[in-house]
Structure formats: C-alpha cells, structure tokens
Amino acid sequence: MTKKHFIALAKVIAETSDERERRRLCEEIGAVCASVSREFRWSTWREACGVER
Description:
This protein is mostly helical. It has helices spanning 3-14, 19-36, 42-49.
C-alpha cells in the first residue's frame, strides 16, 4: 500500500459520523495497515482518522 492509500482510508474513516463506529474502524483498519507497513505510526493514523486517544 502507498501513502496515498493510507490517506484515502483515513479520510473515509474521518467522515464517519458515528464516533463509536469511527473509533472501531480506525483501530481495525489501522491494525491491517500497521501489519503491511513498518513506517506506520498510530498517532498519525488516529489523528488522520479524527480519533483522539
């Protein structure tokens, strides 16, 4: 996956209006993304998805 793919996924997640669903998607899809990229950063991902910890 390229950075472009990660950005597109995060954008769709960030547009999810239900906060609980947005958090769930962020964590589940983030886990897949983390498994395919050694450069994956959870803090950057969560911010891009509109999820605060």
